[in-house]
Write a structure and sequence with these properties.
346 residues; alpha/beta; Nucleotidyltransferase, domain 5; 5-stranded mixed beta sheet; 11 helices; globular
Length: 346
C-alpha cells in the first residue's frame, strides 16, 4: 500500500508518503517564526499559511518519495482534535484527493497517532507495531497532557488528562512571564541546562493524587507571584537559569511520577512518551532513569515524530486500513475535540 497523509491540526503543515510501514518522505513546513511575534499561535494566520503551503509541501513529499499521484492507494488526514479552521484545510484536501482518485480515505485522531509514534524508528523511519506490547503512554504537548493505557494494537483506554493547562502550555506561559521568546518550552530547556533545579521549591500540582489527571495552572500562578516579589531576578542570568531549572523540575517531576505510578498500578512492563514536550531533555533523562529503576522498558518517540507531523498520521492510517477499518465518509466533518475516549474500535 502507498498512502499520502496530511497533517494541519495547528501551526505546522505536513505531508508524508507511507509505503508498507515505511516513511518514504515526511515534509513539514513550520510556522514558528510567523507566530513568534504574537507570543502564540494565531488561528487565522495558521489557516492562511496552511492554504499557502499545502500544495508546495505535498509536491515536495511526492518528489522526495519518488511517487506520483496515480501511485497512491489511499489518502489520510488528521480529523481532530485541533484548531477548527486549520484542521479543515488538511481534511478537505485529503477528502478531495481521495475522491478524485476513487481511493479510500481515513480521518485520523491526532492523539491516537501519537500513541504509536514511539514504535517507529530507524533510517528510513519504519513502524514496528508488531513489537508493540501493553504500555502506559504519556502524551505531552502544548495543548494536551494525558496518560493512556495501551492494551494492544488499536486497543487503548484514556486514564487521565489535564484539568486545566497542559504541560507545554505551562512552559510557554511561564516563559512569557519571564520574557523569553515563543515557543517558550525550548527556551526554558536551554536556560535550565546551566541552572540549579533545587534553587526554588515550586509546587507539584496533583502529584500525589490517586487519580491519573494533571493540573499545571497552579504552578504558573505560583511563578507569577514569585516574580512579582523578585523582579530583580530577571536581570541576573545565573538566577534566571536557576528559575528555569526549578520550573522545569516541577513540571517534569509531575509527569514522571504520575507516569511511573500508573505503570506500576496497571502492572505493565513498558512506558512510552510522545508529543512536543517529549523533546525536553530533562524529561527524556528523568523518564529513562525512573524506568530503569522500576524495571520498565522505555520507548520515546524520535524527536522528528514528537511535534506535529504527517508520518504518524499516515502510519496509523495504513495500519487501520490493513486491519479492516472502514474508510471515513468523504463528507465527514472535522472533530475539534475528538477525545481518545470516544474512539470506536473501527
Amino acid at each position: 500500500m502507498t498512502l499520502l497523509a496530511f497533517e494541519t491540526s495547528c501551526d505546522e503543515t505536513s505531508v508524508a508518503i507511507i509505503r508498507n510501514g515505511t516513511v518514504l518522505s515526511n515534509c513539514v513546513s513550520s510556522q514558528i517564526a510567523l507566530h513568534a511575534e504574537y507570543g502564540g499561535v494565531v488561528p487565522e494566520l495558521a489557516t492562511r499559511e496552511h492554504l499557502r503551503n499545502l500544495l508546495p509541501v505535498a509536491r515536495t513529499a511526492l518528489h522526495d518519495a519518488k511517487i506520483s499521484i496515480p501511485d497512491l492507494d489511499a489518502v489520510a488526514a488528521t480529523r481532530g482534535p485541533g484548531l477548527p479552521s486549520a484542521l479543515m484545510i488538511g481534511l478537505k484536501a485529503g477528502q478531495a484527493l481521495a475522491f478524485s482518485l476513487r481511493k479510500p480515505f481515513l480521518g485520523i485522531n491526532h492523539h491516537e497517532a501519537h500513541l504509536y509514534s514511539p514504535w517507529t524508528s530507524g533510517t528510513p523511519l519504519r513502524a514496528a507495531f508488531d513489537e508493540l506490547q501493553p504500555n502506559i503512554s504519556l502524551i505531552v504537548s502544548g495543548g494536551h497532557t494525558m496518560l493512556v493505557h495501551v492494551k494492544g494494537e488499536l486497543n487503548h483506554e484514556l486514564l487521565g488528562e489535564t484539568v486545566d493547562d497542559a504541560a507545554g502550555e505551562c512552559f510557554d506561559k511561564i516563559a512569557k512571564l519571564i520574557g523569553l521568546p515563543y515557543p517558550g518550552g525550548p527556551e526554558i530547556d536551554r536556560f535550565a541546562e546551566s541552572g540549579n533545579p533545587k534553587a526554588h521549591d515550586f509546587p507539584r500540582p496533583m502529584i500525589y493524587e490517586p487519580n491519573h489527571d494533571f493540573s499545571f495552572s497552579g504552578l504558573k500562578t505560583s511563578v507569577r507571584y514569585f516574580l512579582q516579589k523578585n523582579p530583580e531576578l530577571l536581570d541576573d542570568r545565573k538566577r534566571l537559569c536557576d528559575l528555569c531549572a526549578s520550573v522545569q523540575a516541577a513540571i517534569v517531576d509531575v509527569l514522571v511520577v504520575k507516569t511511573i505510578k500508573a505503570a506500576k498500578k496497571l502492572a505493565v512492563r513498558c512506558v512510552t512518551a510522545s508529543g512536543g514536550v517529549t523533546c525536553n531533555r530533562a524529561l527524556r533523562q528523568r523518564l529513562a532513569v525512573a524506568c530503569q529503576g522500576a524495571g520498565f522498558q522505555l520507548r520515546l518517540a524520535e524527536k522528528s515524530l514528537c511535534t506535529d507531523n504527517a508520518a504518524m498520521i499516515g502510519l496509523l492510517a495504513e495500519r487501520k486500513l490493513l486491519a479492516g477499518a472502514p474508510p471515513t465518509p468523504l463528507d465527514a466533518e472535522i472533530q475539534t475535540s475528538w477525545s481518545l475516549s470516544n474512539l470506536s474500535a473501527f
